[in-house]
Predict the 3D structure of the following.
Amino acid sequence: MTKVAPLRLLVVLLALLTGLANADLLYFTDFDEFPEGENAWDDFEGWQASDRTSGAQAIIPDLLGGALGNTATLGFNRPNRSLTTVAKTINYNPATESSAVTAFALLFGIEDSTEFTNYRRDDFFVSFYNTNGSALASVRISNTDTDYGFWYRNGSPQAQGYEEIDTGLDFVQGELQELTGIIDFASNRWSAEIDGIPLFTDAVFNGTNRALTFGFIAIEWQIAQGGTSNYGDNFILVSDLRIETVEDDAPPVEIDSISRDPAGNIRISWLPTAGYSYKVEYSDDLVNWRTDLPASDFPSPAGTGPLLFVDANLPQTGSRYYRLVQTSGD
């Protein structure tokens, strides 16, 4: 039997997963660079408004005592249409990009209607559309007397399979709050929170079989009581809008066993994850790593059974160190 030094150390390292995303910023604005005034939200940094003349959309300085600098607003003035949309193009295709998961965050506040419009109250939305312009999902912020609070939609009301669900949570008029969420386009699921409190978790993102691309995000104002003459002078203010991809974490490698067989060979067994490949590397000094051990490459497994590496080429003297490198198998 070949004599070898005792196995002193086994080092398991996880490599960065190739083919997976680093977190990338897709868009951010605090609106401080926008021009001030009515209708100024439109046609700056790629934002497009469906109403460009009524003053319903605006960039206002020094709201909330100047704590936010410039703030985007939608509402207050009588609009030209019952649904007013201000949208920012993102054009992100999760199927061809490195990450299928995106995150969004924004600060918002709802200012209530006044006696000037007989306290009529409306709906506001944070909505997501695909690159074809089809509605995918929305968070509805209802300021109406009948549906007050947060709702979420998984499509357009005109599409088969559409649903709107009451979260059971309310917002606070006149206060700034943070809406955050995660959208997983691969699984067609999303979750959202308001000030860290869950609104909904792992809900269906789109239930209407629309193409799951991130075309644009929109802030919307819907008159609740018919035509524009029945508008309420309530409005939504928006600041610090951020959209970014989410980095996928590597699943941990689960070592099943490390042993020496009767012939003196080193046996390393581990539980793989489908979609990842593995490589056993070795070193004599923990500095220089080599990759030429026979049968040390393991492609992405079809099943979930353990993988086994056997080193039958141990040195006569000294120690040998090993590390297991996990990479994307896509």
Notes: The CA atoms of residues 157 and 281 lie 56 Å apart. The chain has two domains: 25-245, 254-328. Residues 25-245 form a domain with the Jelly Rolls fold (CATH 2.60.120.200).
